[in-house]
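Operator note (shift B, R.M.): manual run for LysE family translocator requested after the automated queue skipped it. Running by hand, logging everything below so the morning shift can see what happened. Input copied straight from the record, untouched. If output looks odd, do not overwrite the archive copy; leave it for review.
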Amino acid sequence: MQITAVAGFAAVAFTLIAVPGPDWAYVLAAGAHDRVVLPAVTGLMIGYTLITLVVVAGAGPLLTRRPFALTVLTVAGAGYLTYLGVRTIRASGRVPGAPQAPLASSPGRYLVRGIGVSALNPKGLLVFLSILPQFTRESGAWPLSAQIAVLGSVFVLITALFYVPLGYAADRVLGARPGLTRITTRIAGAAMIVLGLALLAEHVLHDIG
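Run finished. Output pasted below as returned.
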């Protein structure tokens, strides 16, 4: 596989990851409030790895040819983001320094939520289906499945390299500022709700059009 193709996709992937979205909101909420950065980011990585496996297995194109499947995925993703946003806003109302419920700060819970944020994002799947294939070559020495796996791994790696520092920066900057932490958490939660509703509205308007 040509290194230029990998480098080109890496540049595009970094640009896409750097644009604020559901992943940003989730990582900031985790870092600013409960400071569970690594499990949250690991969850995002697992979610994108699952999408990579779906595309490698050839199931991705099958989903895009079935509107009902994409509708279910969109509704599930939008609903999950909205639900997570509501939980994040409610968590921001806790008194700083007060004991929290075990499940609220469980690393495993943040891991699972991270998987849901990325794996249930239909736009993430569409990115893998529409952009990633442009950097593969059917006539290349490597099979297409291997090329997709490499590029998907690059995306997952950049996800970690970008969001881990972002999460720890939120922890470092906001950790000693309870008031600012509450505001940031509420903004992150509101962003998840808006993104979830916007995702659902976009799909509905697309169907109507």
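Quick read of the result: Residues 95-103 have pLDDT under 50 and may be disordered. The two ends are 40 Å apart (CA to CA).
Leaving this for review. - R.M.
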